[in-house]
Design brief:
The chain has 85 residues and is of the alpha+beta class. The protein is 51% helix and 14% strand. The termini are far apart. Bound molecules: zinc ion.
Length: 85
């Protein structure tokens, strides 16, 4: 009985590593929860730090913990930061 448990633990460990440390059945549960929302899938939005445009998190460019709507805004913000320093 104990031997079976050890073998099971080893096999589980190998599978876990094989899947890159991710448990697909847990990930699937999470994504199902998102889709079940009564208003459909709502994407998180964030505001561009430079021009204040609202963008979805998929489109957002994150740089130094700030979000930007485009590379253009990111570059402009970088130039402004350089001027300030
Ligand atoms: Zn912008």
């Amino acid at each position: 009985m104990l031997l079976k448990l050890i073998i099971f633990a080893i096999v589980a460990g190998i599978l876990y590593r094989f899947l890159g440390g991710r448990l697909p059945f847990i990930d699937r549960k999470k994504s199902q929860k998102k889709e079940e929302h009564e208003f459909g899938v709502i994407e998180a939005t964030s505001e561009c730090s430079y021009c204040s445009t609202y963008i979805t998190e998929d489109d957002a460019i994150i740089h130094q913990k700030k979000t930007y709507c485009s590379n253009e805004c990111l570059e402009k913000a970088k130039i402004e930061n350089r001027k300030r320093n």
